Amino acid sequence: LRGMNGRSFLKEIDFTPAELQELINLSIDLRDELETQKSGGATVTKYLHDKNVILLFSKTSTRTRLSFEFGADELGANTVYIDPNSSQFGKKESVADSAKVFAGMADGIEYRGFAQSDMEAMAENAVDTKGRKKPVWNGLTDEWHPTQMIADFMTLQEEFGHLGNDITLTFVGDGRNNVAHSLLVAGTMLGVNIHIVAPKELQPASDVIEIAEKYAKETGAKPMITSDVDEGVKGSNALYADVWVSMGEDNWEERLNLLGDYQINAEMMAKTGRKDTILMHCLPAYHDMNTKMAKEAHENFPGLVGEDGIEVTNEVFESAQGRQFEEAENRKHSIKAIMVATLGDVSMYPKA
Ligand code: CP
Ligand code: NVA
């Protein structure tokens, strides 16, 4: 664990497979420690005592913000949240200058942005005037969503008791988005079989597939990329959905046309051939028509959007197979683990 101290987490491959596994195990330990405190036991360890953490968001967020904010507080740190509109960032001031200012005042920086190159520039420039480098955590870019992965594979490990190539997680939908790319790489690094089921136009970028194939050789995971739903979902232990139009995109019509056959519904769940397949979703989800965006999509594209959800039906979302709120809860535990490992006083961790 000590080897991660001082390092940034910008994408999955910044850490080794063993380190990702350590983060998952630490997440579980931090969750258990918090549960002990809630039931009147010892208080949680203040691994981040008196640290200052900046939470910079260029896109909106619910889970990631709450996880960093409450997580940092539970660990003894102070946070300042910067929303997408009310600072100089991204308008009057460059990523590099902002990073230097942040590093001068804070010990760690969470950043949710657009281009991964901005994330890399943030980390490169997050150095204070005395030359001290500060860790940067990627809270989501157009390319990757690494903090989500620790929560998702923690959820899978809790469900199945372990991670390995006897487990298949199948992502269905926009296979080129941040979550699909991250699942393919993180899952393969952790030895889990990842299937990406997506139309040809929306299959993962070739450099991402190459990374996954390289790790697959090391870990024995068997990744699969296919446009064939029957082939892709067969035998899956988990089906994973994400929105078809990600933040920063505005191509509803194209996506609805391409992804019409890729909705996770009861029929698709049955095609796994298993009764115990779980549903995963990073959230937010369009599983019914009750949100503003889902209503707009339904009104604008009546022939392409039905009454029963977009990427996942309400029936499957609300079924006993849904694990999306476990994932959401695990975001806080796993984000705490990432902060502890990279910024915390790990000598306080009994297993360090
Ligand atoms: N899953 C996720 O990142 O959620 P938020 O966009 O609400 O942070
Ligand atoms: N792919 C989604 C993930 C949201 C957590 C997006 O980028 O909007």
UniProtKB/TrEMBL annotation:
Q: Under which main EC class is this enzyme filed?
A: transferase
Alphabetically ordered keywords of this record: Cytoplasm, Transferase
Q: Where is the Aspartate/ornithine carbamoyltransferase Asp/Orn-binding domain?
A: 166-341
Reading the lineage from the top rank, the first entry is: Bacteria
Give me the gene this protein comes from: argF
**EC number assigned by the record:** 2.1.3.3
Give the matching NCBIfam families: orni_carb_tr
Q: Where does L-ornithine bind?
A: 178, 242, 246-247
Stated name of the protein: Ornithine carbamoyltransferase
